[in-house]
Structures are given as structure tokens and as C-alpha cells.
Amino acid sequence: MNDLTDTTLAQTAREHADAVESAAPVKMTARDVHVYYGETHAIKGVSIDIDMDHVTAFIGPSGCGKSTFLRTMNRMNDTIAAARVEGQITLDGEDIYASGMDVVQLRARVGMVFQKPNPFPKSIYENVAYGPRIHGLAASKSDMDAIVERSLRRAGLWDEVKDRLTDSGTAMSGGQQQRLCIARAIAVDPEVILMDEPCSALDPIATAKIEELIHELRGNYAIVIVTHNMQQAARVSQRTAFFHLGNLVEYGVTSDIFTNPREDKTKDYITGRYG
Amino acid sequence: MNDLTDTTLAQTAREHADAVESAAPVKMTARDVHVYYGETHAIKGVSIDIDMDHVTAFIGPSGCGKSTFLRTMNRMNDTIAAARVEGQITLDGEDIYASGMDVVQLRARVGMVFQKPNPFPKSIYENVAYGPRIHGLAASKSDMDAIVERSLRRAGLWDEVKDRLTDSGTAMSGGQQQRLCIARAIAVDPEVILMDEPCSALDPIATAKIEELIHELRGNYAIVIVTHNMQQAARVSQRTAFFHLGNLVEYGVTSDIFTNPREDKTKDYITGRYG
Amino acid sequence: GDSNGGARTQITAVGSSTVYPFTTRVAEAFRNQDSNRDAPVIESTGTGGGMARFCDGVGSEYPDIVDASRRIKKSEYQKCEANGALPILEIQIGMDGVALAESLQGPSFELTKKDIYLALAAHPRGKDTNSAQTWRDVNPALPAIPIQVYGPPSTSGTRDAFAELIMEPGCTEAFPEVEEKSSDDKKMVCMQLRSDGPYIDAGENDNLIVQKLTANPNAVGIFGYSYLEENHDRLRGIPIEGVSPTYETIAGGSYPGARPLFIYVKAKHLNAVPGLKEFLRLYSTMWGPDGDLVKRGLIAAPQDVRDHSVEIIQQQIPLDPSTLD
Amino acid sequence: MTFSALIFLIAGLGLISWLTARARAARFDRAGRRRLHSLPAQHGWYVALWTVVPPLLFLLCWSAIEPGLVSQAVMAHPAAAQLPGFDFERQAVLAEARRLASGSQIGAFNPLAEQLAPVMAEAQSHYAWLGTLVAMLLAFAGGAFAFTRIRANFHARTRVERVVMFVLIIASLIAILTTLGIFLSLVRESLRFFSMVPVTDFLFGTHWAPQVIDPNDPGSSLGAVPLFWGTFFIGAVIAMLVAIPFGLMSAIYLTQYAAPRVRKWMKPILEILAGVPTVVYGYFAALTVAPAVRDLAVMLGMEFASSESALAAGVVMGVMIIPFVSSMADDSIAAVPTAMRDGSLALGATTSETIGRVLVPAALPGVVAGVLLAVSRAIGETMIVVMAASGAANITLNPFESTTTVTKQIVDLLTGDAAFDSPKTLAAFALGLTLFLVTLALNIIALRVVKKYREAYE
Amino acid sequence: MSDPLMPELPSAGGGSIAPRQPTDWTTDAMRQRIRKRYARERRFRRLGLVAVVMSAAFLAFLLVTMASQGLGGFFRTEVALPIDFPQTGIEVDKASLDQPGADLALAGAGLENIVGTAAIAAFGDYGPNVISDNAWLTVREAIKHDPSILDGRAVIHVPASAEIDRAISETGTPEAEAAVTTLQAENAITEGFNWRFLSASDSTDPTQVGIWGALKGSFFTMLVTFLIAFPVGVLAAIYLEEYAPKNRWTDLVEVSINNLAAVPSIIFGLLGLAVFLGTWTLFGHKVGPLLPRSAALVGGLTLALMIMPVIVIASRNAIKAVPPSIRDAALGIGASKVQVVFHHVLPLALPGILTGTIIGMARALGETAPLLLVGMRAFIATPPDSLTDKATVLPVQIFLWSDEVSRGFVEKTSAAIIVLLVFLLAMNAIAIYLRNKFETRW
Ligand SMILES: Nc1ncnc2c1ncn2[C@@H]1O[C@H](COP(=O)(O)OP(=O)(O)OP(=O)(O)O)[C@@H](O)[C@H]1O
Ligand SMILES: Nc1ncnc2c1ncn2[C@@H]1O[C@H](COP(=O)(O)OP(=O)(O)OP(=O)(O)O)[C@@H](O)[C@H]1O
Ligand SMILES: [Mg+2]
Ligand SMILES: [Mg+2]
Asked: CA-to-CA distance for C13 and C283, rounded, in angstroms?
């Protein structure tokens, strides 16, 4: 069955590969990045380029540092007291850890969806409107309504919540909360979107909607997605990075990785032999 | 292509079907259960039998009431002030909503793994040891160590955490937290285990381990698992219940459901046409 | 549970904060005589509160002595009677001077009762309001300094004494027609102090008034004579009708502000509370002009009053209610 | 046997019964089914409670009646006939005899006491043994009864937890009882007051000058409106204008900006502010702040500015209650899950926006509770106003003018020299009662408002 | 076999959504907006800093003032007083000096006058003003300690008077200044730490006063307050948050608790007076008073009622802030409600509970008004030995001293305030340690 999976994955990857443009501009780079949580060395010298107009998938076993690395990319690690980052990460050539860096703008440009859904204890509407409001993206109430509706539609949540926009964002099912968080993140139109397992609590249809959204966004954004679903990685991404124990083991074009992984570890992992 | 999907699922289901015993004793029953959150009618007259020695999968689109129904099965709904339950649910023939019911014992017998991982802000060891301790399952410290180790091993977490058992359970990756919660739930040896998307944040290997665990537990327990992954439902379960908008649309032997769903809605959902 | 079950071994006193320093001094001397004695417990509750407790009954849970900066009221006596606390002994321990003072940096006021009345009355000469803002408005001979008088609050015995000893005579002098009014009206006109600012109710804490005077040289303070004596390096007594407040003028009666201070004792407790009689005897040895209490600011009562008090203690002469009002 | 020894003995018995019951339940555990309903320790608690509670209840009653029994025994002695008839004196002699008997006093002050001491000693030991005996019997009976009930499926936990629940209910009842007690202790005297002074005069009168009360129309100088205005103005306006911004901003700074170590130190340091005795604040307000405020007022052109301003008292009071706001806000802000904060920061919100729009709203119940507590404290505060605000009862919006508060008047009235049955003193009770009812009404409103704006996370 | 696991993406589902360009962060308007937001952020942060610094500065100012005024209170001046006993003609039976009646015997022998005369002999007419009024007590102790000194001339170090004290520390009266100069010339004056201040009780003489009685009284009172208010407050909070059904009744409890926080403290005194010290008639029998007046027990109970609302309110908030998922987790593995509360909720809520306790206890420690009515505003010259002994507390002591006529009390008052603050810090230190230990963020 593993062979079957293998082949299937490779096939999926190849099918979607035609969309890959050869020379996409680089949006973000990481050079020899190390992250420590106190004593724990969670990321060990990762260097990677995130391309514009592409979807990059981070895969790897649980606890290997995918979320940690994602958080370093928009400096959300700053909020964990024990976390310490070394190395260089740039956005459009600018070092985001430089002292002059405008963290607020950085985070507005590099949006993030967290692994555990964390809606604000406000109404559904306010959850989505929050970002546009603080950045002044809506000129009027109707503008804001439009933004909220579009974001919720894109996250595939509109139909379920359009009649209860004033209900609290916390009184929803797990999957609904996750989609709400996605809607909230895309409402500010970031340039890079980091998604930490955005579909983990979603049913296939909702997943399909999110994948479609990713597909659609790809044209104008750089997207990074953490996923445990190899199929999903193969379907939506053009680049895949495989992490293991804090190391970036392999990084490349998705169809190559799934067809022809260079490293044995990668191969073992995607064929399910690892562990 | 949809037919193909169908076939694959059906095949998987059939492959695993040989394990189903024909006349398993009924462990839990629900009769015409309704759940309301204030005004919202979240579960609408569900009747279902949960069999011993079997795995029952709950599937259905996000927000359809799977988690809600799961929570009614060990009265975790009691903790939500707005929630109200009507109808009858029994465990071994006893009405669990009867006034004389000892809720604590009920919950010890019907364990639960929640959708969002919720480790205690205590050490990893204490997280797992907590249940056995309050139920007096360990006679000595070494007994307890053995229980903790076995539970963590079964949840596939032992190797990752064996050197840091005193670290806080909250300073872990999402997937690690989820496995910790599984370990915590099985440490008390419940008779029924309710798992709300136990593998949503897990990589394929960890998922395989949990599935293996479920398989292994099945012999002595009744297991209910909520999942969005049709493949997983087909692989691990012997019974499948399909929920939709608070209704139990269809319930039956897994291979039947995936091969030959009676209802169109079910068919649409599992073939991905719904939505 | 309590090993003393219904009895007590120490003397207890409650009442006026003005008498408090003297009773505590005696209590201390009482214990210094013999450190095996239980130290008396002296509470400072105000005369009214003290009387209320004193007259609640006899027995260990009720005080033996009440300190009073005024005589017991008839209604209070009746309460004592109703609760079986009679007979009681009334003992005058001496006098308290009510002095007016200013900072040494002040303008060296010389006032008359009439000036004071006109400056502080709420209804001077029966008028609705008092419009005087500076001392000159009251008496052209006085400086044009805003009237600012710190004094005790409306419930204080010192304030009553002030109203009675200074305001009322000043009132009859300034406004003789008042004698024709009913006694209630007379009270309103003569004793009511203004509440629009110039008279500042400064609470029961006389040290605070002293400090406020030091901080504000143009102000005048009204308080017990002992504080003036203790602070003579900062304050100066204000002469009234040419007489300055000193020990001699107050004791001799030429300075207008002096009022008697009392203690009341339950006769029934004299035998039940160990040492109570000795305590009273000790009190009587300390209140003379060369006694220790005078050093603490008490103004000794005239000889005949002191003799009478000693007689009351020795013969346990109860208070005659007919003399009360 | 002394009382404390007896208590120790009972505690010891409790411990023993706990251990034995636990051991017995543990044997069921081995032998019996897969899982006991209750833990062995819970069985232990059950039996221990049965062993300890009945004798303790008995001792409580016994200690109340025992002295009476002893006295009775002593009175039966012939020598007791000589005791003085007056109750207090008789008790004094008996008490002395008791002290002699227990050895806490040596020489006797009263010869009769010496005579009675041995009788007393005998009676005491007699009843002490009786009490001990009964207590022991109860302990054994209770313990044995409970012990026999232990079996594998016995619901010990449920029972023990019912006791816990009972204790919890009792605890919350104390608050209600206190409220009731305060109400009752005020209401009787207040009724006496209102029988002398018309309620309407008191509640709506605007003139407060209790020094000379016109017996024909006592209400004319006992109008409470200025006092309530002063209380509100000083406590709820001026003090809050200091305490809320300072307290809230301190809390925010310490939780969100300051290094953890700074917070660890600064928070307790600020809490000292709440513990400085109010007398100290009073002096400070009266002697330092008030003159400064007066000078300011004079500079602003108020020639006859009082040095007893509402502002001085209010500002110092505000400083005193900063910790009420800051510490409680600090705790509730710190308790908001970090995921909320992360969610906002990740959208590109600045820290201050995150605080203002996410954290503070989520922590609102705690913040509001802190503020309410602070207002309450300010309204109930006495000493500062006693020392720094004058007694002048003005209704004014000018913070440089002097005002007075309800609490200052209550203290003055209760500690003054006036007789306790005059309307002057009784007014204190009426003031207390009215203040109580007014704050009750305000709290009901506050509860409604808080309920409406609460945001629950998770 | 192109896509075995997932259906093909629905081709045209959300096609109606207009695409949108990423926000352009470089436009002038946007830049300006961001600048403004940053400015606001900086302002906000600075405001916070200012708030903290100013509050702390205020406290520092208070403390420095107290310390500068009060340090003198911890020192005292002693004067070497020579007394020639045989010459004074004192007659006491030396053998009786270790008997209980010794004090009375010495007092009766006119020791006070003897000491006064000795002072005149040694320092001239101003002599009696040089030594404390109670100097003879020191002499008495010396005699009791060593009766043999009665046989000859002895030099005894007695406390100097308050005037002399003041002349040394600041400026006193001219006479006192002169006396100090001569005494210093004769080396008859010594300054030392005033142990008496830490070991004695109240007195009417500032040179004799001590804080020990009040400190002990405060300790006993706080002990009672804590032992009652803390458990009852926390348990009540637990009941209200975790158990009570949310209905009118709980609203009533909540409102009445909040309201209690606003009741003036002196009214709690009235309550304590009525409940613990009052007498009632029950079925024709006179009952009460339950407890002795002026005792730490009554004061503590009264203060406990006063601060209980603070603890309840703070505890409720802390309990409310514990995320429900933690409760779910514990309930889900079969913990009983009691276990959930005591194993999880309470430890997590402890920091907030302790905050409430700290500010409540701090308030109780500084409170005077209610104690007035239960008899603790009193002159009590012996330290209490038990909860039922007559006692007073530090703030009351401070209040009483601040109203004393004698100027010598000024620095004693400040010194007492310092002691109170040290007590407060010591009391809070434990709670703060625990609070820091238990604080978790999740
Ligand atoms: N606490 C709550 N208060 C009010 N409504 C709720 C609450 N929790 C869930 N709901 C609503 O009840 C319905 C069923 O929710 P439930 O959590 O059972 O869905 P689910 O099937 O588990 O979905 P998912 O797969 O997304 O987790 C949803 O419409 C949801 O919005
Ligand atoms: N707050 C923290 N403090 C300390 N260690 C942490 C913290 N968060 C994560 N770790 C550790 O860092 C390592 C990497 O964690 P990370 O969350 O990045 O994993 P992940 O790849 O996202 O895993 P998953 O797929 O399970 O979410 C893990 O070993 C984890 O235990
Ligand atoms: Mg992760
Ligand atoms: Mg769910």
C-alpha cells in the first residue's frame, strides 16, 4: 500500500506542478536560523527561500519545529519569553530582526493562522473586522461590511454564520473557529500568509474550500502552509520543506520531493515508513 | 473520478470489515436525544447504539453537532451553562441522565479526548498521572511510573518526552499536546473512549500509531471517534454514523456505509459532492 | 471557656478623649506602684459613646468609670437607672482650658468675645448669613486678614464649651435683644457656628490643628489649653479682652474658656473590681496644683471642689439627680 | 485533662480512624472489583469526619454549659451561703476561686475565695472528666458506626463531598448574614432617628449643620444631600480620576511592557500603598497636599480658598486605592490566555491596540471588579476625610472648595461628646443606613452593566 | 488514479469574490497612519511608565518622610544619674525585695521623690527636667536587681526626658540646649538603640513607650482576621463561581458582597459591637456577650467581616479567569467537582486570590475606625498574651500617639509607622512569594 501511496502522491504533485513558474521572485529568506526555548534547541540552522506567488508546504513529524519556524517568520516568537532566535530572516530583502524593523507592519504584511484556533471573545463580525479596523483599511461601515463578508465567504464560513454575526466567536464548533481565524487573517490582505495546519479540524468540504482559497490567493501572495496531510501538501504546494528534529532535511519543488526525494529520511516520512 | 474515490473508500472499509463481529453487546444507547444551546437546536432527535468491542466513527460536516453529541455521552455538556439535553442516554442499561447517576464515576468510565488539546499547566508526568491518582489505580510510585510510561508509549509520545517528563505540558508542540491528552485519557482505563478528532494535529506516523492504539484497545472497549478523514473512518471503524445539521442521517456498519450508503446526503458527503 | 468567667481583674474606663490623657496617666501610676496589678484599660470613645456604654448595666462587661468632658445628662442618668447601674459617683477631677491661639508668626491678634461672636456666628445678630470675610469686617481695629478659625467638630464637648463660654457672652454683648427671644432661638442665634468656610471643623485631633496653624500663620485655632502649653515655642495664646490664656488666668477664672472635667464611677463596682478604690484614691493625689496631672495640662480645680471630690470618693456619696439638666 | 489536650486526643483519634478506614478500604480494592467507587483515602475521610465532628460539636455545647454546672456545684457548698448577694461581686469571688483552683493566681484578694477554691477544683475536675468521657464515647460511637458502613461499593466520596459542599454554602451565607446584620444593627436606631426627624427632610434637605438642632424643626439642619454629594464627589469622582488612570496604566505597563522581574517587584511595592495606615495619609493630605492645593487655588484667583479642599482629600484617597485597581486589573489581564494576545499581535496590532481592544475587554470583569472595589473603598474611607476635608457641608462642583463626607460625619457623631439618644448621634445610624442602601442600588446597576459587557474567552 | 483521497476542487464555488490587491503599505497615507499608531503606542507606553513611576515615587516620598521623622524614635538618650542612697534616708527591708510586694514597698518608700532630689543634686534646679518622669522606675528595677546598691553611692543610667531628647535630635528649648551642653561636657549623656521601644507597651511618657504590646495585638488580630477571612472568603468564592446556580439568588449574594465592600469601616464596628459584644434576650434568658471586649479576637473577627468581601471578589475573578478547558480536561477523566476545584482551579487561581488577600489584609492592618467601637482604641499598658486578652493594635496606637499632647510622641508616632510598614511587608512577603510561585500563563 505504501508504494501505492507513493505513486499516488507523486502523481498528485506532478499534476499540480504545471502551475509552477520557473523563476518566481524570492519574498522571504532565512539564513542559518536557530531557535532555542531556554535549553531546548528547537530549530537548528535552517536556511530557506520563500518564493512569491507560490505555496510552500512545511511537513515533518510532530514536534520537529514547523510551528516554531513559522512563528519566527513574523516574529511571533517575540511573545514567548523563553524563545531566542539566531540567524537572519529577510522580507523583501529587509532583515526582519534588525533593530529598526517595524514589527507591526511586518505582522500586517506577514499574516498568520495559528494551530489552535484562537478567536477573540468578541462577535464574529468584530473578529473579522478587527484587523481592517486597526489598519484603517475600510473607509466606511459599508466598506467594512464588504470586507467582512468577503473574508468570511473566502473562508467558507459565510453561509453558516451570516445570520448570527453578532454571536460570540467562541461559541462555535472547532472547525468553525478555525475558519473564522482564517477569515480574520486574510481580512487584512497580507503579502505573506503563514498557515499552521489550517485544515486540521475541517471536514473535506471545508478543506476543499480552504484549498481553493489558497489556490486563488497564490497569484498575489506568498503562502506557507504547515500540514500533516501529504495529499494536501502535494495538491496545494509548489515547494515543500521537510523538517526533522529541528533540521531542514530537504527543500525543493513539490513534485520533485514527492517523486524523487533526495534524502532517505524524506522518502521514509512521505511513504509512511518512518518511525 | 468520484466513483473511484467511492471504490477506494469502500475497499478500505471492506478490507477492515472482516474484523467486525456480528453480535456485539450494546454498551451505550441514545434515544431521541435533543441538545439545545440556548436557542440553537444543535442535536435533533438522535438515536444510536454504541457497541462494545467496536469502533464507531462519527462523521459529518463542520458544525453538524458531532462534538456536541460526544459531550452528551459523558455529560460533559453539564459544564456549558446554556446547554440543555432532552431524551435518554444509557450506559450498560443505566440512564446516565437519571438523577441518581454518579457523574464522576460515569466520566471515569466514559473517557474523553477533546478536540482542542487541553493539557494541565503541570508537568507531563503529572498530566498523565493525574487520572490514575484520583482513581487510586496505582498502589505505589513504581506502579504509577509504569502506568505513565505505558500510557505515553501507547500514545506514541514516550520517546519524545521520556527525558523531559518534568517539563510543563503546555510547552509542547500542538501534536505533542494532542497525544499527551490521549495518553492522559487512556491512563485511567475507561470502558468507553470518546475521541474528538484525535489525529487532527498529527503527522501520518503519529496518526498510524494512534490508529494502531485504537485497534488494539478495541478488543476490550467501546470507542467512539470523530473524524474528518474518511480514510481514517474507513480504516479504523466498524460502525459509522453520519451527522448532518444536528440529525443523525445514517448509521450502520462502516463497510456498508462506504460501499452502499442508503441516503443521498451520506453519499454526497463521503464522495465530496456535498456543499 | 473563659477562665475568668464573668469577672474581671482590671479596671476599665471609657469616654472622653479630653479626659483620656489624665486617666491614662493615673492608670500608669497605679500600675507603676505595683507591677503585679493588672493594668487598667482606658478607652477613648468620646463622652457620648462612653456614657452609653457606662449606663448599659452593671457587671464585668460594663466599664467601671466613664471619663466625661461635660456633666452627665438627665437622659443618660435615667438610662443608668433603668439598667441598674446606679448609684454612681460624680467626681470632678479638674478643669480644661479652651484656648484660642495663633502661630508665633501670626499677626498678634487681640480679640474680644464680641469680635469672635461676630466673626464666627452663623446668624450674627439674628441675620440670615454672616458676610464677614476678614477680621476687619468684624472690627475696624483688626487687620484685614481672612477669617480662618480651626476648631473642633460640631459634636465635640470643647466646641460646646467654646460656644457657651465665649460665643454666648459675646452674643449678648453684641446683640442684647437676644435675651427676649425663646431659649431655642437664642441658641440658634448665639451658639450656631457658621459653616460657609471661615470656621473650619478640623476634627478631634488637636495636634493637627497645631500643625495647621504653624503652616498657616493667619489662622486662629481653638483647642485644649494643654496643647498650647506644650507648643509655646510655636504658638501664642490670643488674649481675650486683654487676658492671655495661661495656667493662672484659666485656673483663676479671668480667662473665659474653662470647663470642668469629670469621671463617673459605679458604686456597685467598688467592691467587685480589685483596686478600683485605690485607683480613685491615687487619682485624688494627682490632681492638685502641684500634682502630676497638672504637668500634663490639667487645670487644677479650686481647693473646695477638690475637697468635695475627695469626700465623694471616701464616703461614696452618690450623685443627686435633681442637680442634672 | 485540659481542653487543648482533649482536642489533641480527638484529632489523634481522627487520624487513627482515617488510617484504619483507609487500610480497610484498600483491602477491598485488592480483593474486589476493578474499581472502587471511592478512593481508600475518601473512605478514610468519611470515617474521620464521623469520629471528629460529633465530639467537637458536643464540646462546643459543653464548654458553654460547664461553667454554669461548676458554679452550681460550688453554690451548693455551705460556705457559699456567705457569698455577697450582688451578682457581679459574687461572680468576682467565684472567678477568683476559679483562678486559685487552676493555680493561675496565688494569694487571694478575698478570703471567701480561698475557702471555695478546693470545692471549685473538685467540681471542675468532676465535670471535666464527665465531658471527656462523653466526648470519647461519641468519638468511638461515630467512628464505629462509620467504619461498619465501609464496603466496596459504599459511596464515601459522595458523602464527604456533600460535607464540603455544605461548608461552601455556609461560607457564602456568611456574606449574606453580615449584610443582614449590618442592616439590622443600623435599622433600629435609624427608626428612632426617623421618628424624630422626617425622612423627607433628611433625604432631600440640603442643609447640614448638626451643632445646634432646633427641637421644633430638627430636620431643617439635618439634610443629608450635601454629605452624599461630598462623598460622591470626593470618593467616586476625584479619587477615581486619580486611581483609575494610574491603577489601570500601571497594571497594563507591568503586565505588558515591563520585564517580568520588574513586575515581580513593582506589583508588591504598589500594594504597600493600600497598607499605609490611613492616619498617615490623613496627615499627609492635611499638611502637605492641602496647603499646596490652596496655594494653587490662590494662584488661580480664589482669594479665600480653603485649605480643606475636596481635591486634597480626593487625590490622596485616589493614591491610596491605586493598588485596588492595579493589582486586580493586573491579575485579570495576566490571566487572559496568551493565544488571545498572539491572535491580535499576529494581525499587526500594536501592543497598545492589543491591550485596548482585546486584553482589557477580555479582562473586563476583573478590571471592573477592581474599580468597583476601589470606589467602594473610597466611599467607605474615613480617616483621610476626617483629617483633610473639613466638616463644611457644601454642595459644590469646585474641587477647591471644602466638602464633607458621610463617613466623616458618622465618625464625628459616634465619637463625639453628645448624648447617644439625641437626633445628632442617631443621625449617624441613619446616614449609615442610607449609604448602605444607596451603594446597594449602585451595585445592582453595576452588576447589570457588567453582565452586559462581559466577554468570555474559550 | 489521479486523486484517491480527495475530491477534485469544486471548480467555480466562490468565483464571485472579487480579487483584491495586497494592501500597499508604502502610500503616504498609510505611512502616516502607521507613524501615528506608533506615536500612540509610545505615548501609551510612556503613560504606563509614568503611572508606575509616579505611584512608586509617591510611596517613596511617604516612606522617606516617615523614615526621616521616625528613625529618631528608635534611639534614646540616657543620663548617668548619681544617687547616694544612704544619704537619702530610704528605708526598705532588703530581704523583701524579691517578694511580690517589692514594687509597692519601694514606691511607698518615696523612691520617686528620692530620684527627683538626686537629679537636683546632680544637675541643679533644672535637674528633674533632665530625666524622664519615669526615671525612678529604672532606679527601682536597678535596686530590685541588686539591692546592695542601697548601701552606697551608685550611678544609674536613667532615660533622659523628652525635652532633652528633642534638644539633641533637633532644637529644643534654650534651657534644654544648655543642659545638654553641660551634660555632654560631663560625659553624663549616652545615646543608644531604644530596645525599650521594641519591648514595652503603651505609656503616657514618650521616653517609656514601646510598640511591643501593639505589635503583638496586631499580630493576634491579623491572625484571627486571616484565619477567618481567608478560608471563608475563598470558600464562598468557590461556591459562588463553581457551584451556585446562576440565578436571582446568586445575584443577590453577589450584590450584597460587593455592597459590603462599600460599607464604611466604622459600621463594621457597629456590627461587631452588636454581634460579638451585644447581649440579647433569647427565650427569656440573657445571652452574651459572646466574647470579651477590647480583645484581639473580637477585633480580628470584625476586621475579618470587613475584608471578606475584598477576598471574595478577588477570588471570584481569579477563579473566573481559569479557562474552562482545564475544568473540562479534569472532569473528562473522571475527577469530581471537588477534585477539579481543589486540584486545578484553586492552584491556578491562587495568584489572584492572594492579591485579594494581600490588599484585604493590608487594609485590615491599617484600620482603626471599627476597632474603636469594639474597645481596642484604648490605653493598654501590658502586651496581650492570648487572643482574649485586652489588646490594641498598631494603627490605633499610632492614632492615639498622634493625638498626644507631648511633643516627644511625634517621632515615636513615625517610628511606630515604620514598624507597621515593616510588619506589613513581612506579612505580604509570604503571600507574594506564593503568588509568584503559582503564577502560570497559558
Ligand atoms: N458553546 C456553544 N454555545 C452555543 N453554540 C454552540 C456552542 N458550541 C457549539 N455550538 C454550535 O452548535 C453547533 C454544533 O457544534 P459542534 O461543536 O457540535 O460541531 P462539530 O460537529 O463538532 O463541528 P466541528 O467538526 O467543526 O468541530 C454549531 O452550529 C455550533 O456553532
Ligand atoms: N513554548 C515552548 N516552550 C518550550 N518548548 C517548546 C515550546 N513550544 C514548543 N516547544 C518544543 O519545541 C519543539 C518544536 O515545537 P513546534 O511547536 O515547533 O513543533 P511542530 O513541528 O509544530 O509540531 P506539531 O506538528 O506537533 O505542531 C518541540 O520539541 C516542542 O516540545
Ligand atoms: Mg505545530
Ligand atoms: Mg467539533
From this structure: 13
What per-residue confidence (pLDDT) applies to D419?
77
pLDDT the model gives residue E17: 46
Atom of ligand 2 nearest to the CA of A37: 4
Q: Which three cell numbers stand for residue A259?
A: 517523486
Is the CB of residue B172 less than 8 Å away from at least one CB of chain E? no
Ligand 2 center–CA B161 separation, angstroms: 12
Residue E192 DSSP label: E
Helices (H), chain B: 2-17, 66-73, 103-109, 124-134, 141-154, 158-161, 174-186, 204-217, 230-236, 254-259, 264-270
CA distance A154 to A162: 13
Residue pLDDT tens, chain D, 458 long = 577 788 888 899 889 988 888 888 777 765 444 566 777 788 888 899 899 999 999 988 887 788 778 878 877 777 777 776 666 677 777 777 777 776 666 555 667 777 777 788 888 888 888 888 998 899 999 888 888 888 777 788 888 888 998 999 888 888 888 888 888 888 888 888 888 888 888 888 888 877 777 777 777 778 888 888 888 888 888 999 999 999 999 999 998 888 888 888 888 888 888 878 887 888 788 878 888 888 888 888 776 667 778 888 899 989 988 888 888 888 888 888 888 888 888 888 888 888 988 888 888 888 888 888 888 888 888 778 877 777 777 788 888 888 888 888 888 888 777 777 778 888 888 888 988 888 888 888 887 877 776 655 54
Q: Rounded distance, CA C160 to CA C150, Å?
A: 15
Phi first, then psi: what are they for A272, rounded to 5°?
A: 80, 15
The partner residue sitting opposite D158, judged by closest CB among B102, B108, B136, is: B102
**How far apart are the CA of D357 and the nearest CA of chain A, in angstroms?**
9
Please give the DSSP secondary-structure letter assigned to residue A50.
E
Residues B197 and A85 sit within 8 Å (Cβ to Cβ): no
d(CA D165, CA D175): 16
Q: Which residue's CA lies nearest to atom 4 of ligand 1?
A: A171
Nearest-5° Cα angle at E40, E38 to E41: 60
Maximum C-alpha span of chain A: 56
Distance between CA A94 and CA A104 in Å, rounded? 15
C-alpha dihedral sign at C192, C198, C203, C206 = negative
For chain C, helix, strand, coil in percent to 5 are: 40, 20, 40
Closest residue of chain A to E3, computed from CA coordinates: A12
C-alpha cell at A175: 472547525
Do C and E touch, 3+ Cβ pairs within 8 Å? The answer is yes
| Distance in angstroms (rounded) separating the CA atoms of residues B207 and B215 | 12
Q: What is the pLDDT of residues B130-184, one digit of tens each?
A: 988 888 888 788 989 999 999 999 888 898 888 889 888 888 888 888 889 999 9
Q: Say if A74 is an interface residue toward chain D (CB within 8 Å).
A: yes
Chain D residues with CB under 8 Å of A166 CB are none
Which chains share 3+ C-beta pairs under 8 angstroms with B?
A: A, D, E
Give residue E13's pLDDT.
Answer: 37
User: H/E element holding A239?
Assistant: strand A239-244
- Give ipTM to 2 decimals: 0.86
**How far apart (Å, rounded) are the C-alpha atoms in residues B249 and B241?**
8
Residues of E with CB below 8 A from D107's CB?
100
**Bridge-partner residues for A168, per DSSP?**
A123
Residue of B nearest to A156 (CA): B275
Chain E contact set for A208 (CB, 8 A) = 6-7, 9-10
Q: How far apart, in whole angstroms, are the C-alpha atoms of residue C211 and residue C203?
A: 13
Residue A227 near ligand 2, beta carbon < 6 Å? no
Rounded Cα gap, residues E321 and C278, in angstroms: 64
Residue A171, ligand 2, Cβ within 6 A: no
Q: Is D24 on the interface with B (CB under 8 A)?
A: no
Strands of B94-95's sheet, edge to edge? B40-51, B26-37, B83-91, B94-95
